[in-house]
Amino acid sequence: MATTIYHNPRCSKSRNALALLEERGVEFEVIKYLEDPPSTKELQRVVGLLGIKPAELVRRGEKVFKELGLAEQELTDKQWIAVLVEHPVLIERPIVVHDGRAAIGRPIDNIEAILTD
């Protein structure tokens, strides 16, 4: 059973999620998604596991969101994925994929839930 965390070391929530995985003794792979952005296919898979629309994964408070005028645009799921691949800073974090399920660690209880179920 593979576990992956999409991690931003500068984010306290992401660091907390990493610590939770370590505390629980879970073996995991760390993907620093700002340095190694996910591919279109990978991001589509993660969004599918999360059970959300790509637009729900967008960090709307980021400077680049405003600079690109994304609030004024109506994008398709495919277009949102392309934006997230091109601008990974817009991807909500942390994301943990575990045993065929995924969760955004806001709150961290979301991650706890996929580890225990």
UniProtKB/TrEMBL annotation:
GO MF assignments: arsenate reductase (glutaredoxin) activity
The EC number(s) this enzyme carries: 1.20.4.1
Superkingdom of the source species: Bacteria
InterPro entries according to UniProt: Arsenate_reductase (IPR006659), Arsenate_reductase-like (IPR006660), Thioredoxin-like_sf (IPR036249)
The protein's enzyme class: oxidoreductase
Keywords: Oxidoreductase
Pfam families listed in its UniProt record: ArsC (PF03960)
Assigned protein family: Belongs to the ArsC family.
Protein name as it appears in the record: Arsenate reductase
Species in which this protein is naturally found: Posidoniimonas polymericola
Gene responsible for this protein: arsC_3
